[in-house]
Amino acid sequence: MELSKKAQRIEPSVTLEITAKAKEMKENGVDVISFGAGEPDFNTPKNIIDAAIKAMNDGNTKYTSVNGILPLREAICKKFKEDNGLFYKPSQIVVSTGAKQSLANTFLAILNPGDEVIVPTPYWVSYPELIKLADGKPVFVKSDEKSDYKFTKENLENVVSDKTKAIVLNTPNNPTGTIYSADELKVIANFAKEHDLIIVSDEMYEKLIYDGEKHISIASISQDAYERTIVINGLSKSYAMTGWRIGYCGASEKIAKLMTSIQSHVTSNVCSITQYAAVEALNGPQDKVNEMIGEFEKRRNYMVDTIEGINNLSIIKPKGAFYIMINIEKCLGKEINGQILNDSMDFSAMLLECEKVAVIPGKAFGLDHYVRVSYATSLDAIKEGLMRIKKFVDKLNS
Ligand SMILES: Cc1ncc(COP(=O)(O)O)c(C=O)c1O
User: Fold this and answer.
1) Whether the CB of 124 sits within 6 Å of ligand 1
2) Is residue 202 lining ligand 1, measured as CB closer than 6 Å?
3) Selected residue with higher pLDDT from 68 and 153
4) In which band, very low, low, confident or very high, does the pLDDT at 60 lie, cut at 50, 70 and 90?
5) What single DSSP character describes residue 101?
6) How far apart are the first and last CA of the chain?
7) From the DSSP assignment, how many helices (H) and strands (E) are in the chain?
8) Which of 3, 211, 257, 306 falls between 20 and 30 A from 291, CA-CA?
9) Is any ligand 1 atom within 6 A of the Cβ of residue 98?
10) What is the Å distance from ligand 1's center to 131 Cα?
């Protein structure tokens, strides 16, 4: 029996695979340092947990409206207004099971078979697969080190066609941690207007930014940009709520309605308890979020300084999120334990085998001469892990 061709064309998430492998090794007693995680190592703040317990005790354990309980959609509107200068009505908000589902809903709501979506390289692993699941075609924009791998108008002009329907923007970026400035966003917004494109703006890491940088939502650039943008966000990263599974989007009422209709048949509403906890996360005190950001910044600074001091490695300096892309070009073609490192997959596999350090191969993000490390892990683990990486790189023979 032949199973779905579409499903068979989907690549499983390399990030989740490697993280799971490192977890399994740890469970078997191996002393693994994992730089794979895409999640904060902090627990969810207590006021949020308490709100969830209260929701259960109050009997808020039933189905809710598909697009989310009204107090949560109101809290999201308030957040959009205060943080981003964006004015949405609750009818323009759809709450979903993680930003991942918001993105899945987005592509299912806007794409017809063969529609092309411009995706910047390096990209977050799920964009291409979610676009393919919605019968669209990801078209990758190559950018380079000079522009910190952010796309320029020239890069975009090279790939746009009469089939282009949308463009994905991710700022702060996973995996590079780069942030688009207002001027860069204006160029993209003008480009989208010129070619009548929908902008899918993934702003998951908006709160995790350093060096006094400011996150700007492309939807706030102009009225036109607001109308053509679907803003994606969620609570996983900013509030250490990865396991609660909650994300949301702001869009035109027409698109929000289509997304709600799709979600009504797939998952219905997000877990009711999570939604009540999310109201507290957004409306309650934000001091824990600020503490986490301070801790991430300390770790980032340590990692940047240490990696820059390792021979044959260089980095893209991150301004946000909690990842660093390490350029391993000078290690490729070298040998360890009889194995030549041909690409980022070989580098990651041998690093795990020889030094028990898990990193994500850049291939997963479309940039094969890089590996991604996450600093969402303790400073002690970071110190030990970087020492092992240095040992590994120093051992490579040409
Ligand atoms: C750029 C980006 N967007 C979206 C998501 C999805 O997050 P979640 O589904 O946990 O809300 C992630 C998670 O890793 C991410 O890195």
Assistant:
1) yes
2) yes
3) 68
4) very high
5) H
6) 49
7) 14, 15
8) 306
9) yes
10) 15
Given a cut of 80, whether residue 275 has pLDDT beyond it is: yes
CB of 40 within 6 A of ligand 1: the answer is no
* Distance in Å, CA 239 to ligand 1 centroid: 13
Packed helices 14-27 and 344-355: angle between N→C axes, nearest 10 degrees: 10
Residue 247 CA: which ligand 1 atom is closest? Answer: 11
Instruction: Write b or e for each residue in 31-40: b if 16 or more Cβ atoms lie within 10 A of its Cβ, otherwise e.
Output: ebbbbbbbbb
Residue 156 pLDDT:
94
Q: From ligand 1's centre to the CA of 164, what distance in Å? A: 24
pLDDT tens digits, 216-263: 999 999 999 999 999 999 999 999 999 999 999 999 999 999 999 999
The string of DSSP codes covering 33-50 is EE----S-SSPPPHHHHH
Cα-to-centroid distance, 320 and ligand 1 (Å): 14
Write out pLDDT tens, residues 9-40: 888 777 777 778 888 898 999 999 999 878 89
| Model pTM above 0.85 | yes
- In the reported structure, the alpha carbon of residue 98 is separated from the centroid of ligand 1 by a whole-number distance in angstroms of 7
How many residues are present in the chain? 398
Alpha carbon distances (Å) from 130 to 107, 125, 136, 279: 7, 9, 9, 28
User: In angstroms, rounded to a whole number, what is the distance separating the alpha carbons of residues 51 and 357?
Assistant: 37
Q: Is 95 helix (H, G, I), strand (E, B) or coil?
A: strand
